[in-house]
Amino acid sequence: MPYNELRKDYLLDRWVVIATERARRPTDFAKPKTESTKTVSCPLCPGNEQMTPPAVLVYLPSDGGIRKDKEEGDFRSKNWVLRVIPNLYPAFVPPKNPADGEHVMNGDSFGNAIGHHEVIVESPNHGDHPADAEITQIVQVINAYKDRLGDLAQKPYVKYVQIFRNHGLEAGASLSHAHSQIIATPFVPTIVAGEIAASKTYYDQHGTCIFCDLIKKESQNPCSILDNAHFTVFAPYASVNPMEFWILPKRHDSSILSLTPAETEAFAQTLKATLKALKDLVNDPPCNYGIHLSIDKDTDNYYHWHLEVYPHLAIWAGFEKSTGVYINTVAPETAAAELKKAFNR
Amino acid sequence: MPYNELRKDYLLDRWVVIATERARRPTDFAKPKTESTKTVSCPLCPGNEQMTPPAVLVYLPSDGGIRKDKEEGDFRSKNWVLRVIPNLYPAFVPPKNPADGEHVMNGDSFGNAIGHHEVIVESPNHGDHPADAEITQIVQVINAYKDRLGDLAQKPYVKYVQIFRNHGLEAGASLSHAHSQIIATPFVPTIVAGEIAASKTYYDQHGTCIFCDLIKKESQNPCSILDNAHFTVFAPYASVNPMEFWILPKRHDSSILSLTPAETEAFAQTLKATLKALKDLVNDPPCNYGIHLSIDKDTDNYYHWHLEVYPHLAIWAGFEKSTGVYINTVAPETAAAELKKAFNR
Question: Can you give the pTM of this predicted structure?
Answer without folding.
Answer: 0.94
